[in-house]
Structure formats: structure tokens, C-alpha cells
Specification:
The protein contains 14 helices and 10 strands. The chain has 392 residues and is of the alpha+beta class. The strands form 3 sheets. The chain has a 5-stranded antiparallel beta sheet with strand order 3-5-6-10-8, with helices on one face. A hairpin with a 3-residue loop joins β5 and β6.
Amino acid sequence: RDDLDPELLRFLGEILLLRRPGSAETELALRFQQTSGPVMAKGVEDTAFYNYNRLVALNEVGGDPGTFGRSVNEWHRVNEEAQAKWPRAMLATSTHDTKRSEDVRARISLLSEIPDEWSAAVARWSAINERHRTGDLPDRNAEYLLYQTLVGAWPLDAGRALQFVEKASKEAKAYTSWINPAPEYDAALRDFVTGALGDRVFLADLEDFVAPLIEPGRINSLAQLLLKLTVPGVPDVYQGTELWDLSLVDPDNRRPVDYARRATLLDEIAAMSPSAAWARADEGAPKLLVLTKALGVRARRPEWFDQRATYRGLDAAGAKAEHVVAYARAESVVAVVPRLMLRLGGEWADTTIDLPPGQWRDELSATGALSGAVRVADLLVELPVALLSRDA
């Protein structure tokens, strides 16, 4: 802002940083702090994030859609810094306020690996659904948001889809808003969504596209879950996300949770092998298994995860090394998860991980006597993630 006096801005900065004593100065700093949070929430998260739809898995509360992923080494550096500075920070992947649940985002993220296939699918769907448009409404940005949402949350009925697009369009404030509704636009958007979700040709093509993404999306979700449960910080599990949860922004993510179903499955997985849990993937058994096993390790050995514990990234070697994320906590527990599942293609080849010295066992599969350079394919044979602990 070269139109403003730089001395004035410098003076204001000193006040906001509490470098200018005085009651009026302190009050201004406090009022600025109280205002900055709501401005961030409404201006960025509830406006910009509903307009900038390049890859909506990035448009999450607290996130930055300008950061399109990061390298594994950079990610390790971030965790090392978190362990040094914020070892007790909350780690949340779904909350009452997320725009999309952790599992929806995990599936949508797969689109970044198949840009050509995704582009072709969007072109087909737009051509099919042209008959459901009202002139030039709705805008193409809203249409593109709808397609990403359907891929991430499918199966999604028309009622929930309509509820989501209404909120998204009102929050975006590009053509309509809560304060200044545009009836013509609102009606065109409703008609488009209803028409598309009643179109057999479109739905058949959509389901064919989503089907191959379901399992890789679930693997992404398990990887995300195990990372959250083992990296520096305190993991938070939002109600209902103990199993797969394909919910959208509120009020969709505040629907009643079937706790009885979760309690029953919790009892069953106590004696369930990882392969048996994976056979019941549609019920969410693998997610609940990883959650309970990892929390069990944290409960038994809290010193492996507290503010005194260390964090060290582990290197992978071999043809598919770029697809591995592995690290040790307190040199006593090791987490191993895959990344970029579609590009991996399910083939680990000769990829290995060098474990820290000692004998190790997998807490998820109970496989023991692991040491030295371990083949990733052997580690992830029953479940697509592994949590190893050092034998005493």
C-alpha cells in the first residue's frame, strides 16, 4: 500500500505488537485480535474457499489452497518443528466446521494424480448435463464444485447435494448470498443439481469413474489416520469418523451418529485379524481397527509420543521409495504409510525401509521378528499401513 504513509503503518504495527504501552494502545491491539479471527473465517474460509475450486480437498479450515502438497522431506521438517515447539497441539482432520470430512478429502485428493482422466470426465459430464442448465446458469465454477463434491462424497442423494450447493453458493457470494439472494440463480442451481442427479446417463458415468477410487481413497484415509495418531501433537477424533464418514459441511457433518453400530463393531474387531477387517472394509472395520490399535499403543506407552519424545524421518530405498512415508518416534515406534496410491498401482517392487536397531513387531498384524531392511510389500501385506513397536 504505497498510497499510505509507511510511518503510519510502522506505528500501527508497533501498537499491534504491544511495543507501545498505554491503555488506549492495548485496547486497540485487543480489538484487532478479536476482529482478525472473524475476518479470516468469513473473508477467506467462508468466501474465497467457496470460489477457488481448483482442488477443493485443499480448501479446508486452517488450510492454504495455494500450497499444492509438499515433499516427504519437507513434511518431516514440519513435524520436527512441531515436536520442538508445539508437541501438545491438537491434530484434527474433521470437526463440526470442516467443509468436507477427512474421508471425502482423502478421495478427492486422488484427482491430483489423474488430471487427464479427470479433465475428460468433467468434459463428458458437462456435455451430458447441458440440458439441465437454465440458459447460462448456473456458472461453470459451481458446476465444477458439484462434480468434485459428488466424486468425494458418492453415494450422495439429491437432498444432501442440494443442501451443500445452496450453502456453498450463498457463502461464495459470487451470484447470490444469504443477505442478497438471487431467486433466478438459486432456482437454476437447484434445477441443475436435481436434473443431474436424476439423469441415468450421467449417474452411470459418474459411478464408473468413482468405483476405482473407492479403495485408494480408503487407503489414503487410513494413512491420514495413522499419521494423525502418531506424529507430534494430540490427535482428535470427531464424532462419527471412527468409521468411514463421507459428510460435507454443516449441517451434514452434524447428523446423528450410530454409536450402537460402532460399539458392536468395536467388540468384534478385538478378535479380528487385519485381513478380516479389510474384508469388511465397506463397514469401516479397517479404520476402527487402526484407530483402536494406535490409541492402545499411545495409552500403554505415552512417553513415546509426549513432549520429550523424538521424531525422526526414515528413508525408503527402491523403485517406489517416493510412495513411502515412514518415521520413528522415540526410536521405539515406527509408522509406515503409502502415498500417491494411483501412481503406485499396488506394486511395491524392491522398495525397503531401514528400521532402527532392534527387533520390531507390527501392532496391527502382530507380525514379529522384524529388523534391518524390511520390504514394504511384506509390511503392508495385510493392511495398507503399519505401526511397529520395538520389542523389549
